[in-house]
Amino acid sequence: MLKNILSIFLQPNCPLCERATTEEICKYCQKQLKSHQLKDPKKSSQGDLPLFVWGEYDGKLKQAIAALKYDKSPQIGELLGFWLAESWGKNYLINSKIKPLIIPIPLHKAKEKIRGFNQAEIIARGFCQGTKYPLNPKGLIRIRQTKAMFSLTFQEKGNNIKGAFKLGKTLEKHSLSRPVLLVDDIYTTGTTFKEAAKILRDNGIKVLGVVAVSSPRHL
Ligand SMILES: [Zn+2]
After folding, report:
1. InterPro entries this protein is in (predicted)?
2. Residue 12 lies in a domain
């Protein structure tokens, strides 16, 4: 009896609403999050990078991504990555026999140190658990600190990200026959993805496209 009572108090709380839950996020918040899921996850993007997005960056999903990044709640990222994988599996954009290498958009190491982790990497882990695709968390390295994108004009964004990435050492032995899929938490203008894809393509690596947990409605 006492053990049962104690177990109620020892249950971790939902990182989004503080209710006691045995799951990463409580059922109530999961339902709210799923209301943001897009019916059509295939989105058009600029250039030749097909884009796949799980949900609309708004309301509870926006809150969840902020909690993932700033409240140090990586379990949210794993769950979102897993949902992204479920949606991907239902909407096969590529031949299901192709198993692309998953590379998250990297943070600069100074920023990653402050945050404790790279949220894109956590999402990519959840995505790879669901898809069984291989993951290379350090396939790309961010070599330059960049300014927050939201404060910049379109032109400035392009200049801000230029030369920000290089290939990770772990990717030097990459088989060119295996294509890459890039993963991040939010897709906005696509300038970051474009720059990341350029570095890979300049090195002869095929980039299939990009997958993101969320993007704003106007896209
Ligand atoms: Zn909750």
Report:
1. ComF/GntX_DNA_util-trans, PRTase-like, PRTase_dom
2. no
Q: How far is CA 25 from CA 41, 97, 99, 123, in A?
A: 23, 32, 29, 15
Q: What is d(CA 198, CA 177) in angstroms, rounded to the nearest whole number?
A: 17
How many structural domains does the chain have? 1
In a domain, 3, yes or no: no
Question: Which residues constitute the domain of residue 115?
Answer: 20-215
In the block, tokens 């993932």 appear at: 68
Per-residue burial over 132-148, b if 16 or more Cβ lie within 10 Å, else e, is ebebbbbbbbbeeebee
| Residue 4 included in any domain | no
User: Residues 120-140: pLDDT tens digits?
Assistant: 999 999 999 999 999 999 999
Distance 118 CA to ligand 1 centre (A): 23
- CA gap 177, 206 in Å, rounded: 8
Q: Which parts of the chain register pLDDT below 70?
A: 1-11, 43-47, 92-94, 147, 149-150, 218-219
Q: How far is the CA of 150 from the centre of ligand 1 (A)?
A: 28
Q: How far is the CA of 111 from the centre of ligand 1 (A)?
A: 28
Is residue 11 domain-resident?
Answer: no
Q: What CATH number is given to the structural domain containing 140?
A: 3.40.50
d(Cα 63, Cα 71) in Å, to the nearest integer?
Answer: 11
| pLDDT score of 170 | 87
